Amino acid sequence: MLWFQEANQNQGKYFKQGNWQENFAYLIKILERGMAEGCFRQLDPFLTTLHIIGVCNLYFNAYENIKHTRPDLQLLSPEMIEATRAFYDPYLGMIIVFLSNKCMFGFPSEAGEGLAGASIKDLAEVEVTPSGEGLHWKTLDVDLSISALMNGIFGTKKWMAELARKGGSSTSFAKSEASRLNGTKGDRPGKEIVLATDEA
């Protein structure tokens, strides 16, 4: 949604600062890997990524109009977008989440507060909460909201400000990836993640 709004308001002026190219590349990598492993039929990964993003963009940005076509469905209700399953993909470095509406989304583990630098083993412990509205990592003592993640909110206001300051540095990301693949992880105290939308 932010990508769409930035394109409309600024004609893509802040594309690189928003780091959306990495998110685009992640989805292309998923498609390419699926084709290589025989899970997906052969397709143009770039055009397919455009289609997927287009559907997601329409779903959320045009909701106020779409809702009138099926008033019996609450498209943004917890029942429609609650998570049913989640897992960590070490190849992509992403947390992949499946939703009850048959859609899926993913985000880089390095973006999630409390997840950056964690080991593959710890990241793989991701669980969907009983309500289906959150993700939980027992060892890391991390909880993140599904609805917040889908809106690009990966932690507290302080954490989001830090992400913005770093600007998704490819250098820092590469170092974190190398650290994780080597099985290293810094000790971190247990903590409760308060999402930016919940803070005063």
Question: What does the model show?
Answer:
The protein is α+β, with helices and mostly antiparallel strands and 200 residues long. Helix content is 43%, strand content 14%. The chain contains 10 helices and 6 strands. It has helices at 2-10, 15-18, 20-36, 45-61, 63-66, 78-81, 120-123, 146-150, 157-166, 170-181; strands spanning 83-89, 94-99, 104-108, 127-128, 134-137, 142-145. The strands form 2 sheets. Strands 1-2-3 form a 3-stranded antiparallel beta sheet. A 3-stranded antiparallel beta sheet has the order 4-5-6. α3 (20-36) packs across α4 (45-61). The two termini are 24 Å apart. Mean pLDDT is 75; it is low at 168-200.
Task: List the keywords.
single chain; 200 residues; alpha+beta; 3-stranded antiparallel β-sheet; globular; disordered C terminus
What can be said about this structure in brief?
With 200 residues, the chain is of the alpha+beta class. The chain has 10 helices and 6 strands, in the order H-H-H-H-H-H-E-E-E-H-E-E-E-H-H-H.
Q: Which class best fits the helix and strand makeup?
A: alpha+beta
* Overall number of strands: 6
> Which strand order does the major sheet show?
1-2-3
User: Which blocks of ≥5 consecutive residues have pLDDT under 50?
Assistant: 168-200
| Average predicted confidence as pLDDT | 75
Distance between the termini: 24 Å
**Rough outline:** globular
Order of helices and strands: HHHHHHEEEHEEEHHH
Task: Give the oligomer, counting copies of the same chain as homo and different chains as hetero.
Answer: single chain
Output the radius of gyration.
17 Å
What is the share of helical residues? 40-55%
Report strand %. Answer: 5-15%
Major β-sheet annotation: 3 strands, antiparallel
Count of helical segments?
10
